[in-house]
Specification:
single chain, mainly alpha, rod-shaped
């Protein structure tokens, strides 16, 4: 009797699945908990995780967690849990395939440009060119940024000297190098947004 009460409280009162204890439930509380509670919950967490990862950057861990919990509670309180449960239980193999396709498309068609880079094409080119920063930690990135900043300061001194002496042929390569170094610093700043502390 107590086991039936657990099923009634969980599936009907909390998750709003009015079909309990009839079909498609088996009547075996362990099977029903696995097929209609645990597996759908895992599926919902995966979907919410992928949604939150697309909305908020990595550094907002607490905000991501809060948004994930809010989305999960909205699904339960709003009565949408049964939709996930009836799909996830009997059709879990199809859902694994669906999740694989969803993961592939979210990774394949990911945004690469940002407003800091101007156009998306330019941002994409900078991301491709700056991909060697992807495997660097925060300390290494900061060290590299400092080194590049020092190199820019040295270049600015050389540019001033070239302007004073009137060496126009030397000015253009120095300015071009400064532009390249500033682009490298933008790439590092972009990568620092995604590196954990």
């Amino acid at each position: 009797m107590a086991i039936e009460d657990i099923g009634q409280v969980l599936f009907v009162d909390i998750l709003k699945m009015s079909q309990y204890p009839g079909s498609p439930f088996t009547g075996n509380i362990f099977n029903d908990l696995v097929m209609f509670f645990f597996i759908p919950t895992v599926f919902i967490i995966l979907v919410v995780y992928m949604m939150v990862a697309r909305v908020l950057p990595v550094q907002y861990t607490g905000l991501r967690f809060l948004l994930g919990i809010a989305a999960y509670l909205f699904i339960i309180v709003g009565g949408y849990y049964s939709l996930f449960a009836y799909l996830a239980g009997p059709y879990f193999m199809f859902l694994i395939l669906f999740m694989g396709l969803l993961f592939y498309f979210t990774r394949h068609f990911q945004r690469t440009g940002s407003g800091l880079h101007g156009s998306t094409t330019r941002g994409r080119e900078e991301n491709i060119a700056g991909s060697h920063y992807e495997h660097m930690g925060r300390i290494d990135l900061m060290r590299e940024k400092k080194r590049l900043g020092q190199e820019i300061a040295d270049l600015e001194r050389e540019i001033k000297e070239a302007q004073k002496s009137g060496e126009q042929s030397r000015l253009e390569p120095l300015r071009m190098r400064k532009v390249e170094l500033n682009a490298e610093i933008r790439r590092i700043d972009h990568q620092l947004k995604f590196v954990k502390i």
